[in-house]
Amino acid sequence: MRIALFGASGGTGRQIAGQALERGHAVTAMVRDESSFDAAFIRTNDKLGLEVLDVMDPAAVAKSIAGHDAVASALGPREKGPTTVQSDATRAILEAMTATSVRRLVVVSAAGFHTEGDDPFTKSIAKPIIGRILRHQFADMRAMEALVTASPTDWTIMLPPKLNDGRLMAQYRSARDKTVPRGFNISRADLAHAVLDVLEDPTAIRTTVAVAR
Fold first, then answer.
1. Which residues pair with 29 in a beta bridge?
2. pLDDT tens digits, 146-188
3. How many whole angstroms separate alpha carbon 133 and alpha carbon 212?
4. 10 Å Cβ neighbour count for 82?
5. In the predicted structure, residue 80 carries a pLDDT above the cut 80
6. How far is Cα 182 from Cα 180, in angstroms, rounded to an integer?
7. What structural domains does the chain harbor?
8. Is 1 within 8 Å of 69 (Cβ atoms)?
9. Does residue 39 carry a pLDDT above 60?
10. Which element (helix H / strand E) includes 195?
11. Residues 89, 12, 158, 196: what is their CA dihedral angle, to the nearest 10 degrees?
12. Positive/negative CA dihedral, 82, 64, 42, 171
């Protein structure tokens, strides 16, 4: 599979790229700044390419993703205040996918504002507190999810809880169209593993997939 990867320079994106290459996939890392991605990593992997582009520009995105089998987005807001990074970028990606007939899409969102499947404490106490702290990021993610679910793409939305930099264990729980009960954290490495499993699984199309330790 040839994967166009957005957010490749972030912690989750790097894990997706590395694990995808280990599985034999080809990856094109889409970045805003070439210096944000390890050039040595590229030189040692002939299945890894690099595209420097403005992800908010649908024409540039279309040119870069043409010929790929799937798009994966690990983009995330870095601002603490109001932000539209994920929704704006996703809008451009969806427009580009329509223009190029690339259909498969997996995006990383968050479990923090989804409550179906939660226990009463998490639903009524923990998540409302988290939601107030991350209200701007969650608002952007909600808008992003709305764009994705309204699109004609073969989409899957990943819903991880709090991320950490633990090592790959490939041992985690998952749930479709609901949250993982008492799932409070997962490593970026395990999230990347789940993203790639979902990309390879046609039964995951048009579902949300929550993952957690």
1. 5, 50
2. 999 999 999 999 999 999 999 999 999 999 999 999 999 999 9
3. 21
4. 11
5. no
6. 6
7. 2-212 (3.40.50.720)
8. yes
9. no
10. helix 188-199
11. 110
12. positive
